[in-house]
Amino acid sequence: MVTLTDAAVNTLERVLAKSGGAAAGLRIAVADGGCAGMKYQMGLEATAGDEDAVLTFGPVTIFVDPTSQPFLTGVVVDFVEGVEGAGFKFDNPNATGSCGCGKSFSAGPGGSCSSAPAAGGCGTAH
């Protein structure tokens, strides 16, 4: 389903260690929003949900809810650092369109960004 690069695993291992044991893993989800229609969400979680897919990458555990699973099949999550800052990058083979921020995508027919950002969107860079 989801694959983490070594850079993502190393970064998440440090983040989870800083939680002092309060977080058992990281939840990756997809929700409506962003300028392309859907957006990625990430957050630390104390436990997995009853129906979550639980993925383990060495010391890092990922939780994915059933609704998000189809949108995250084949996704590669990387952690990149550059002149514009550092952050997680999603390479999603299911995306039919995305916006310049890399955090918003579409996964249906006609998947392109609209010319105006949605509320809370990432902008209109294509």
UniProtKB/TrEMBL annotation:
Molecular function via GO: 2 iron, 2 sulfur cluster binding; protein-macromolecule adaptor activity
Lineage: superkingdom: Bacteria
GO BP terms in the entry: iron-sulfur cluster assembly
SUPFAM superfamilies with a match to the protein in the record: HesB-like domain
Residue ranges constituting the Core domain according to the UniProt record: 2-103
Name by which UniProt lists this protein: HesB/IscA family protein
Species of origin: Azospirillum argentinense
Lineage, broadest ranks: Bacteria, Pseudomonadati, Pseudomonadota, Alphaproteobacteria, Rhodospirillales
